[in-house]
Amino acid sequence: MATIGILQCTVLFCGTLLFIDYNFANPARGYALCILALILVNLSVTSLGLFVSAVLKKAESAILPVLVIIIVQVVFCDCLITLPPAADLVKYLTPTTWGIAVFGAVTQMNSWHEQYFEKELYNVSPWISLGILAAITLLFLALVIIKLKRAYKQKD
Predict the structure, then answer these.
(1) How far is CA 16 from CA 9, 57, 154, in A?
(2) What is this structure's pTM?
């Protein structure tokens, strides 16, 4: 599943290069960081979905919670809509926020037009955002492993 996700991210990013002229100060570094961000967002959200699936009794019951998780990723990514201060804290828990923070930092989006693009996470080092994405991925993979091991032991 991870291999397919990595392939999808690579095709998606390379496809966008045909239509989007990214504003990278250092193109080689920018391309590498952005593809890595896409891959880590994919892996972290996939591991989150696997965790939800492992926690629930039936695979069919995972559809609604996973749909809610997807909606939360889009709404709280701090890119599409401005969040009120009360909801602003949720963005730090969503992998898409950290992936978008990498793109914002690498393209120096805060310097484009401050009225529209001034986001605090675009000033964070891309390596910190990537580290947080890796940590989220490892956390949910560890939780999946723990949950499945416990479930397997209880079957004996």
Answers:
(1) 11, 39, 47
(2) 0.85
